[in-house]
Amino acid sequence: MASEYVFISDLHMGGDEELSALDFEDELLSFLETLEKRGGDVELIINGDTFGLWEYAEVTGPAKLEQVIEDHPRVFEQFRATGEVIDITLIPGNHDYDLACYPSAVDRLAEYNLTLEPEIAITREVAVDSGGNHSDGHPQIWIEHGQQHDANNRMPDWGNPDALPVGYFVVQRIVAAAGRYSDRARGDWLRDIQSVAPMEEIPRWLLSNYFYREMSPFLRAVVVPLLLFFNITLLYLAGTALEAAGIIPSSVFTDNPVVHALGVGDIVLELIITINVVIIVVLLLLAIPFWLFRRDLKHTLERFGVVLSGVRVGQGDEPFLRAARNVFETHPDVAVFVYGHTHRASLTRWGDRVVVNTGTWLKKLQHVETRFSRLPGVYYPSFRLNYYRIFAEGDRIVVEYEEIETDKSPDLTRFQRLVARHPSAEEPIPDRTVIDPTGTLEIPEDERSGSESS
């Protein structure tokens, strides 16, 4: 039992070709060096998806772990150095599920002072001064990655390398392929596909990057004015309809002297409006069959149990909060529930119980609308390199949250910077949360009924 536990998750180190790049390598090395220098009775726990083993399509089995070690020698040497001073424990997630399938991984990682516990969930005790009414003498931390609560990423037979969920095949066919083809893109944006969450966002993300990065500049120079004038076209159509109905005079739109005074500009404006009218008519004609096709495809995918990501848009962390409620209710000694998987760091407090989401060190992509209507949204990149510390303070448990500063600037094109709105700030997480492990579990009524937590 350590006196302090440090948690991170979802590093996703590894992957074919461009996916092997580690944007946060310097920050991770510095973080590990800091833990090494501090020393003490500390255990670093990486609760899943330390490695991106699913993202390798060219190698199989234990060779995937060997490839990660080869791709990231500096990180593993620092693991070895830090692991000589403090304990470092790994548990498998879904992307490094191979760690639970091949016993050789335990010994291989031990060479770098990494302790692998190939379990779906583990627990740790917190050495508070008084055990209170806890039967085992100390309150516990429940630790898991969380993939078992995601319908398309849960493992049907834990430890069986051939029993793989739908998510594995999606990663193999889409994410790993993106790593191999990333160098063909204009810029290095394609490898960021592993940061698109949930995966339902991939089509919209691809469209956005095609428009802002891959589209011919000459074609974009034609398309952008058409899109920007789309609202003007809608206004013009509405105005001419009102004129035809006699509600407003014809001099407002059809025979406006100011517009006619533009000369050539008037002709260009009318041409753009005409083109947009044609586009609107075509879209209206296609709208109904496209809607029927989309509806039928959705029902078909649901019938086969395939929805790309079991955590759907808008569902948020509800499946994981529901799992935490069950653990708290069935294991009264558990005071803190720790999970990852969703890449959204958070802390939820229910009375004297805490649910912690460890987030990710991957680049985060936030969809933001543009300043100009009809232009595709921009996926604004950022990093939230974070970790949690959990330790005893007298007869209390303290959960501290810290973020690591990074000077990485958003890798956006000049056009994206021009049109993108500023993204909204991420939900703040308390720097310090103190709970009484002998206190009560108080779940708000809206969360008991299954609605999404704020």
From TrEMBL:
UniProt-listed GO biological process terms: lipid A biosynthetic process
Residue stretches spanning the membrane: 222-248, 268-293
Residue ranges annotated for the Calcineurin-like phosphoesterase domain, each copy included: 6-147
Region span, Disordered: 423-454
One MF term in the entry's GO annotations: UDP-2,3-diacylglucosamine hydrolase activity
GO cellular component, one term: membrane
Keywords from the UniProt entry: Cell inner membrane, Cell membrane, Manganese, Membrane, Metal-binding, Transmembrane, Transmembrane helix
Segments of skewed composition (Basic and acidic residues): 423-434
Pfam families cross-referenced by the UniProt entry: Metallophos
Name assigned to this protein: Metallophosphoesterase
